[in-house]
C-alpha cells in the first residue's frame, strides 16, 4: 500500500468572495441545502473536537440538530467524555466533511447548554428505540460485552413498556456559539479556496481569504 502516492485533483469548482453571504450562518445554510440536494450520506454529521483539562484532544462524530444565528446545536449524554471535556474546557471545534462536494466547514467556538425545555422537545421527537438507547447506555463507561448492552436495553424497554419515555436527567444538548467559521472549497493544483468569518468584539462578522 503506497499511501504516500494516493491523491486526486479537486475540480468541482472554486469559491469567490462575491459568492459568499454576509454571515457564516447564511453561507452554511446555502451549503447545507446543496449537500442535501446532492443526497450526501449523513450531511448533518460533524466531527466534534474537544480537549480535556490536560489539553489532550479527542474527536467523535455527532449529528447537527439545529442551527441559527445563536449557534450550532447537538444532543448527547451529559455524563459522556465529551460532556466532561466541555465542562472543563468549553472551547470546541466542529468539522463538516462534505468530501464528495470537495468542501468542508470548520466552526470554532464555545459551548453553552441548551434549555431543558429544548432538550425535552427534541428528545420526545426521537424514535422510541433511540429514547430507550439513551437510558440504556452509560456512555463512555466500560462495558463487559455486547450482551450486557442488549440486556440494559431490554430492561429499559420493559420499564417503559407503555411507550412513554421521559427525558433522562443525564441527557441534554449543547450549542456551539461560533467566533470563527471557515469555508473550504477544493481547487486544482492544490490551490484551494479558503474563507474565514470572524466575529469582532461587537458581534459583527469580518471576512478574509486564507492561503491554502
From TrEMBL:
SUPFAM superfamilies: FMN-binding split barrel (SSF50475). It comes from the Bacteria. Homodimer. Binds 1 FMN per subunit. Substrate binds at residues 65, 122, 126, 130, 190-192. FMN binds at residues 60-65, 75-76, 81-82, 104, 139-140, 184, 194. Residues 171-212 form the Pyridoxine 5'-phosphate oxidase dimerisation C-terminal domain. Residues 32-155 form the Pyridoxamine 5'-phosphate oxidase N-terminal domain. The gene is pdxH. Catalyzes the oxidation of either pyridoxine 5'-phosphate (PNP) or pyridoxamine 5'-phosphate (PMP) into pyridoxal 5'-phosphate (PLP). Gene3D superfamilies: Electron Transport, Fmn-binding Protein, Chain A. Its cofactor is FMN. It holds the Pfam family PNPOx_N. Keywords: Flavoprotein, FMN, Oxidoreductase, Pyridoxine biosynthesis. It is an enzyme of class 1 (oxidoreductase). Its EC number is 1.4.3.5. Belongs to the pyridoxamine 5'-phosphate oxidase family. This is Pyridoxine/pyridoxamine 5'-phosphate oxidase. GO terms for molecular function: pyridoxamine phosphate oxidase activity. It catalyses: pyridoxamine 5'-phosphate + O2 + H2O = pyridoxal 5'-phosphate + H2O2 + NH4(+); pyridoxine 5'-phosphate + O2 = pyridoxal 5'-phosphate + H2O2. InterPro entries: Pyridox_Oxase (IPR000659), Pyridox_Oxase_CS (IPR019740), Pyridox_Oxase_N (IPR011576), Pyridoxamine_oxidase_dimer_C (IPR019576), Split_barrel_FMN-bd (IPR012349). Pathway: Cofactor metabolism; pyridoxal 5'-phosphate salvage; pyridoxal 5'-phosphate from pyridoxamine 5'-phosphate: step 1/1; Cofactor metabolism; pyridoxal 5'-phosphate salvage; pyridoxal 5'-phosphate from pyridoxine 5'-phosphate: step 1/1.
Amino acid at each position: 500500500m503506497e499511501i504516500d502516492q494516493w491523491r486526486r485533483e479537486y475540480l468541482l469548482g472554486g469559491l469567490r468572495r462575491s459568492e459568499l453571504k454576509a454571515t457564516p450562518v447564511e453561507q452554511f445554510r446555502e451549503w447545507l441545502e446543496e449537500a442535501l440536494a446532492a443526497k450526501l450520506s449523513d450531511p448533518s454529521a460533524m466531527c466534534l473536537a474537544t480537549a480535556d483539562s490536560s489539553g489532550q484532544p479527542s474527536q467523535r462524530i455527532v449529528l447537527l440538530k439545529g442551527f441559527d444565528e445563536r449557534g450550532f446545536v447537538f444532543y448527547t449524554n451529559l455524563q459522556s467524555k465529551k460532556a466532561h471535556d466541555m465542562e472543563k474546557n468549553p472551547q470546541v471545534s466542529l468539522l463538516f466533511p462534505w468530501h464528495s462536494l470537495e468542501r468542508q466547514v470548520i466552526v470554532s467556538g464555545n459551548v453553552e447548554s441548551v434549555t431543558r425545555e429544548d432538550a425535552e422537545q427534541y428528545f420526545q421527537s426521537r424514535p422510541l428505540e433511540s429514547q430507550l438507547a439513551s437510558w440504556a447506555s452509560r456512555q463512555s463507561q466500560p462495558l463487559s460485552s455486547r450482551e450486557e448492552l442488549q440486556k440494559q436495553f431490554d430492561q429499559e424497554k420493559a420499564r417503559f413498556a407503555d411507550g412513554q419515555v421521559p427525558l433522562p436527567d443525564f441527557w441534554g444538548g449543547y450549542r456551539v456559539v461560533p467566533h470563527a467559521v471557515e469555508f473550504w472549497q477544493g481547487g486544482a493544483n492544490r490551490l484551494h479556496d479558503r474563507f474565514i468569518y470572524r466575529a469582532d468584539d461587537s458581534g459583527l462578522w469580518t471576512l478574509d481569504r486564507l492561503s491554502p
